């Protein structure tokens, strides 16, 4: 594999677009943050040395590895000696690469293979129920508190206030997340952690413990997807962190398409 630069932008997108459900993070990072600059999600890319290219390896400034159809040894050779904060991608690409790097032993933080789902938004089923959507500006402080709680519950990190403030500020700027509001009170939060012109990836769904088991998360996600559909987006994907999440999403029409590995280490390690 060889380094790819801005001149290869279209070629990188063409490869990743062959299976966008497997490549939402690198595609969104490329579109939103590019290959240069200081943002933690700006991403460097490597690819096959000559056309036709079929594999792409991404590495963000934060140290997140984003493999797409990569062979483990060539990708590992690129990553050795670099700080690695985690991995995100299809389990069939992530797990062999982690083994090649010797990073497959549990090391704290999040390390999960989660069922991945897809939905044609033309078949979306919106459940009946209370509530309407509202932007996070309705109650920024609550959004921050819920982000802290979500991060801690999912083992994605320590759930610091500063990181949550930064996350929520980014969501508000991108208009990517919504509250479900019932009787003037936010009762759930939903969002898209990656968005392209034709497909969204659901992420960051949170319902506080006091409001759970009432179908509020399901309704929040459905209403947000209906909003995306009305804007011309045709597909959605997600990976589910728990059986409760699976039970939330299946009734909307989501169908399982595979497994997605999400690994977020407590501290970056040298590969």
Report strand %: 25-35%
Number of H/I helices: 8
| CATH second-level architecture of the largest domain | 3-Layer(aba) Sandwich
Task: Give the overall shape, derived from the CA principal axes.
Answer: globular
- Succession of helices and strands: EHHEEEHEHEEHHEEEHEHE
CATH topology of the largest domain: Aminopeptidase
Compute the average pLDDT: 92
Radius of gyration: 18 Å
Give the structural class: alpha+beta
> Within the largest sheet, what's the order of strands?
1-2-3-4-5-12-6-11-10-9-8-7
Report the CATH superfamily of the largest domain: Gcn5-related N-acetyltransferase (GNAT)
Q: The biggest beta sheet, please?
A: 12 strands, mixed
Folded structure, characterized:
There is one protein chain. The chain has 2 domains: 2-105; 121-257, Gcn5-related N-acetyltransferase (GNAT) (Aminopeptidase). The chain is α+β, with helices and mostly antiparallel strands and 271 residues long. The longest helix has 15 residues, at 216-230. It is globular, with a radius of gyration of 18 Å. It has 8 helices and 12 strands. The mean pLDDT is 92. The chain has helices spanning 9-16, 24-33, 72-79, 91-101, 140-153, 161-174, 216-230, 243-249; strands spanning 2-4, 43-47, 56-60, 64-68, 83-90, 110-120, 132-135, 177-182, 185-195, 199-202, 235-239, 255-270. A 12-stranded mixed sheet has the order 1-2-3-4-5-12-6-11-10-9-8-7, sandwiched between helices.
Structure, briefly:
The chain has eight helices and twelve strands.
Write the layout of secondary structure elements.
Elements: E1 2-4, H1 9-16, H2 24-33, E2 43-47, E3 56-60, E4 64-68, H3 72-79, E5 83-90, H4 91-101, E6 110-120, E7 132-135, H5 140-153, H6 161-174, E8 177-182, E9 185-195, E10 199-202, H7 216-230, E11 235-239, H8 243-249, E12 255-270
Parallel strand pairs: 4-5, 10-11
Antiparallel strand pairs: 1-2, 2-3, 3-4, 5-12, 6-11, 6-12, 7-8, 8-9, 9-10
Helix pairs in contact: 3-4, 5-6
């Amino acid at each position: 594999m060889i380094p790819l630069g801005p001149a290869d932008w279209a070629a990188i997108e063409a490869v990743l677009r062959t299976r966008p459900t497997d490549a939402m993070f690198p595609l969104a990072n490329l579109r939103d943050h590019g290959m240069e600059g200081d943002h933690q999600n700006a991403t460097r890319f490597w690819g096959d040395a000559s056309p036709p290219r079929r594999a792409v390896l991404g590495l963000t400034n934060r140290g997140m590895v984003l493999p797409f159809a990569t062979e483990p040894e060539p990708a590992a050779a690129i990553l050795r000696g670099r700080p690695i904060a985690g991995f995100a991608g299809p389990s069939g690409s992530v797990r062999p690469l982690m083994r090649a790097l010797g990073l497959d032993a549990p090391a704290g933080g999040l390390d999960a293979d989660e069922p991945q789902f897809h939905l044609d938004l033309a078949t979306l089923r919106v459940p009946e129920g209370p509530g309407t959507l509202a932007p996070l500006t309705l109650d920024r402080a609550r959004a921050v508190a819920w982000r802290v709680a979500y991060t801690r519950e999912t083992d994605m990190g320590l759930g610091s206030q500063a990181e949550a403030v930064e996350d929520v500020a980014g969501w508000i700027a991108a208009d990517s997340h919504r509250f479900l509001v019932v009787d003037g009170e936010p009762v759930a939060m939903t969002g898209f952690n990656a968005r392209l012109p034709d497909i969204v990836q659901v992420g960051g769904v949170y319902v506080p413990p006091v409001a759970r088991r009432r179908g509020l998360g399901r309704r929040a996600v459905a209403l947000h997807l209906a909003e995306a559909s009305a804007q011309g987006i045709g597909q959605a994907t997600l990976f589910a962190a728990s059986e409760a999440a699976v039970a939330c999403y299946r009734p909307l029409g989501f169908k399982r398409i595979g497994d997605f590995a999400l690994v977020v280490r407590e501290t970056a390690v040298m590969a």
